[in-house]
């Protein structure tokens, strides 16, 4: 006799689902692939580029830029984006160098033979 609080079509919790039922299981999760990640990254990058284009077009007033004796005229949006890119590079270059340094040290550590176990300390005889 079926219980009134569970539908008759629902499988019992302890029974396995058949192959056809597993294909239509709504709780089954799909694995993320590299291609799907690349597709999501491409869409996000396109949205960021659209926002950057809007930013540049809205900040098109020309400004004077001076740096280390060099002088020039740039649109404000371009000057701000150029400053942001330079700031990112100031962080990314040393960070990349540190990551490479740690990887190199990790490879050396993994390739080194294991250190021998220390010899047990001699025990002194006890007088009883």
UniProtKB/TrEMBL annotation:
Keyword Membrane listed: yes
Parts of the chain that traverse the membrane: 38-57, 77-100
Domain Lipopolysaccharide assembly protein A: 58-109
Region span, Disordered: 1-29
Feature: compositional bias, Low complexity: 7-16
GO cellular component terms, semicolon-separated: plasma membrane
Assigned keywords, A-Z: Cell membrane, Membrane, Transmembrane, Transmembrane helix
Name by which UniProt lists this protein: DUF1049 domain-containing protein
Organism: Streptacidiphilus fuscans
């Amino acid at each position: 006799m079926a219980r009134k609080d569970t539908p008759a079509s629902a499988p019992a919790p302890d029974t396995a689902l058949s192959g056809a039922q597993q294909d239509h299981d709504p709780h089954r999760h799909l694995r993320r692939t590299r291609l799907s990640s690349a597709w999501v990254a491409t869409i996000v990058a396109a949205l960021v580029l659209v926002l950057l284009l809007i930013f540049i077009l809205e900040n098109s007033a020309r400004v004077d830029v001076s740096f280390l004796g060099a002088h020039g005229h740039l649109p404000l949006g371009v000057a701000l984006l150029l400053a942001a890119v330079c700031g990112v590079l100031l962080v990314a270059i040393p960070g990349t160098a540190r990551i490479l340094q740690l990887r190199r040290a990790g490879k050396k550590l993994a390739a080194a033979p294991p250190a021998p176990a220390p010899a047990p300390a001699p025990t002194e005889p006890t007088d009883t």
